[in-house]
Amino acid sequence: MGVLLAGSLALTACGASSSSGSTEGGAYKPGGNVTMTVPFGAGGGSDLSGRAIAAGLEKITGVNISTENKEGGSGAVGYAAFLAKAGKADQLLATETAMLALPLTQDVPFTYEDFTPIMKLGDDFTLLTVSPDSPYETCTDVVNAAKDGRVVAAVSGATSLDQIVFSLIEKETGVEFDRVPYESGNEVVAGLLGGQVDVISVNPGEVLGQLEAGTLKPLCAIAENRYEFDSLKDIPTAAEQGIDVAFAQFRGFIAPGNITDEEKQFWIDAAKEFEQTDEYAAYIEDNLMQANAVYGDDFKEYLTGNAEDLAKVLGE
């Protein structure tokens, strides 16, 4: 299923770590302040994620964790700077699907295997959505219409989540959508409501108000399971309608490569405590995400599969 990105992830000790910290019986704790890098600008989803994680970990560990936005190159600048932090366990980064998409689409000096996965907080899936007066009632209706004629879909960029979703549906079902590119999610929704396109794929958190008001009609969730939120629980998954496609933007955090096992375990243990807090639950609920938390090597396994799915769409 796709290609495996090159590189090697160093999760074990390779000599003394370059980050400072106390050790009592082999245990690690940062000896000073910790920095959480956000590879995007302030105010976006990655920024909200990074600040929520930093605040939660700070409360649990008692270590001061500051958040630093390092934007540019669709995330490439922040990830490249983080690559240079190898061996420093007092550095963290709020990560998402861009970490996997960038090496497939740009000449960047890193892959996900250069870093140490700590925690995936959850998944931000999308809804296939149409206007209220659309004749389509299910995602199967959309696919059948694309088999018989022209269905126009909006996308917000060549490496965007909606582009990936429509491409995966095409590969699964053998149909082809006509695409109209837009600059942002807001423009995508406007294009649908203005009649320029027939269908869109959007994160529910972006359009919850329109869904509740009935100005958008959801057909299915491109998700592994139905949402548990009251406002979304009645929306079937694509798989329930015979379309075996699920893809999400994940949210999580990583440490640099070449940290020790003890340093890695310290952050995994803190992350597991964070998952049990009200702050974690509030972050997931406020952003209408699915709380599929995984840690360490399990997070790495998830990234491998996710990268392979992306390679089918974005890779050569």
Automatic annotation (TrEMBL):
Species per Swiss-Prot/TrEMBL record: Arthrobacter pullicola
Family: Belongs to the UPF0065 (bug) family.
Xref: InterPro entries: BUG (IPR005064), Bug_dom1 (IPR042100)
Listed name of the protein: Tripartite tricarboxylate transporter substrate binding protein
Pfam assignment, any one: TctC
